[in-house]
Amino acid sequence: MACLDPSEQKRYRHARDFLQESIRAASIPFWEQEEFPVGLVRELGRQGLGELQVDGSSALFKGLMYTEVARADVSLSALVGIHNELIVGMINDLGSPEQKERWLPGLRSLSVLGAFALTEPQHGSDIAGGLETTARGDGAEWIISGAKRWIGSGTVADFSLVWARDIADGQIKGFIVESDRPGFTATKIRHKIGLRIVQNADLDLDEVRIPRENLLPGATSFSATTNLLRDSRAWVGWQAAGIQLAAFDIARSYALDRHQFGKPLARFQLVQLQLSEILGNASASLAMMVRVASLQEAGHLQMAQAAMAKATTTRLARQSVAMGRSLLGGNGISTDFEMAKLFGDAEVLYTYEGSYEINSLIVGRAVTGKSAFV
Asked: Does residue 171 come out as left (phi exceeding 0), alpha (psi in the -120 to 50 range) or beta?
């Protein structure tokens, strides 16, 4: 049976309290203004949330940390999750000793940030076959050319992990591209309805030259991303559980405080029904993710299982925040009452790291043996 050991239980309680007391309310103005909260990110680093991938934490503890960050703010949970699962994980697992020595210390403290640059303007779900960004060897350098889109932290990251197709052998490979390289441009994507703290960007790479040693030695084919992308799908499931707990917290508090027809909303049957369903959805999502953590610890998690967890929990999250928004009535559309913030964020969870539909088709392929899309 999966459970936290006593030291992790203590860390979990401390982190949960810190996130609720120091991050939840403080994140709201940054979300509303689409601004990056440098100070809050540094605080997360001081809490050890930048090194979950490499500090020996259990899969269950790591997942519960993602849940609690999402419970406080979903945007910051996206940053913490991508940072650990894709940036720290990729450099630690696929990088050279020199790359690890250079980048991991700052990444662990969240004083250095990276961006994971895979998706392109014309290629999302079909990126494995359609990737157009190229890498060309030129003596002691690589020349990277192309465009990327929806790249989280793209405008604030110190470097990007860019996936590009080597024109010499056709293989998709991973490269470290520092943000101050000539020809590298990051443009912020504005006017999002969710994850507004996350600085998603369009990246333009115009003949960007990098040293040969910026190629990650363990990322010389696209198959190197398999485990990373599988685990990042699972990570979104923890986010989905966290946003539902946040929806329950907000809805329950509102129902107890708000009075209509001479009594608190919590006395009405339909309100109690919605609260019960939100909590039930959150509990079901957590139970599924605890099972995922158990499979990860045993080294048995398959892509289809991660896809099912991501699809199911984000579908339930979408339902839960919709009920929460309805329960708050007119106040549910104002970010002053937080639920509208969750409402927008849930739409992003439903779509990124493989859309709901694509993840469902991955499951369908696994259970039928027949692919509906490739």
From this structure: beta
pLDDT in tens, 298-341: 999 999 999 999 999 999 999 999 999 999 999 999 998 999 99
Tokens at residue 153, please? 């932290």
Give, in words, the CATH class of 114-220. mainly beta
Decide if 356 contacts 311 (C-beta within 8 A). yes
Residues 250 and 337 sit within 8 Å (Cβ to Cβ):
yes
Residues whose CB falls within 8 Å of the CB of residue 89, separated by 6 or more in sequence, listed in order: 53, 228, 231
Task: State pLDDT tens for residues 169-204.
Answer: 999 999 999 999 999 999 999 999 999 999 999 999
| Helical H segments across the chain, by residue range | 6-18, 24-33, 38-46, 59-72, 74-82, 89-94, 97-108, 127-130, 226-257, 269-298, 303-327, 339-351, 356-368
pTM above 0.85, yes or no: yes
Alpha helices in 212-337 (DSSP H): 226-257, 269-298, 303-327
How crowded is residue 366: how many other Cβ atoms within 10 Å of its Cβ?
A: 15
Residue ranges per structural domain of the chain: 6-108, 114-220, 224-368
> Which of the four CATH numbers 2.40.50.140, 3.90.226.10, 1.20.140.10, 3.40.250.10 does domain 224-368 have?
1.20.140.10
Tokens in use for 117? 């640059």
